[in-house]
Specification:
By secondary structure, this protein is an alpha+beta fold. The chain has a single domain, classed as tt1808, chain A. It has a six-stranded mixed beta sheet. The chain has a five-stranded mixed beta sheet with strand order 2-1-5-4-7, with helices on one face. It has a two-stranded antiparallel sheet with strand order 12-13. The two termini are 22 Å apart.
């Protein structure tokens, strides 16, 4: 797992992070370096980004890639989701214009070193975001997409997709992703 530094305040983290040459998460006082990406990871992010962007052209929603920071204040957490979708007025944390507060959809591409974290502790933090309606995790080594959808009673319903012909429907933003398109040109091992 990535290395962990000594405890710092959120303000200290942001000051360091805005000057850094690499990305790090902030987890309850700890700065944790993020893993480097693989070609498969990058292709999946690009495929999904393009598919979502094409379908959001005439909507009040936007899709953002992993260079934009997300804050979950109630979880004392900052991170860079692989992809996030927002709708309506974008809520920004401060004057720096680099921290989003109101995603509707979050998407993470799993790696061997982060898959348990992305499905567990990170998803637990994400569930604290009041606007979040859907969370996708995408395996980069085999065809496997997990979709979590917030229900009216605040429970999260899970669906899994293994069939390349299946369609993942993101009801919160009214779009569909064909599983085959998510994995286009990805060399699965």
């Amino acid at each position: 797992m990535p290395s962990v530094a000594t405890r710092v305040t959120p303000e200290e983290y942001l000051e360091r992070e805005r000057k850094a040459d690499w990305k790090s998460e902030y987890r309850c006082g700890e700065i944790v370096s993020m893993d480097h990406s693989t070609i498969s990871h990058s292709l999946i992010v690009t495929n999904v980004l393009c598919a979502i962007a094409a379908q959001l052209t005439n909507s009040p929603c936007e899709v953002f890639a992993s260079n934009l920071r997300l804050s979950v204040p109630t979880a004392n957490f900052f991170t860079y989701p692989d992809l996030m979708v927002t709708c309506g007025e974008l809520q920004i944390a401060d004057e720096h214009d680099d921290i989003v507060l109101n995603p509707i959809v979050l998407i993470e591409v799993l790696s061997k070193s982060t898959q348990d974290y992305d499905r567990g502790e990170k998803f637990a933090s994400y569930r604290n975001i009041p606007t979040l309606q859907e969370y996708l995790t995408i395996d980069q080594y085999k065809v496997h997409v997990e979709q979590w959808s917030r229900q009216p009673d605040e429970q999260w319903l899970s669906q899994e997709f293994h069939d390349p012909n299946a369609m993942v429907r993101l009801a919160s933003v009214r779009i569909e992703l064909q599983v085959a398109d998510i994995y286009r040109r990805v060399n699965l091992k």
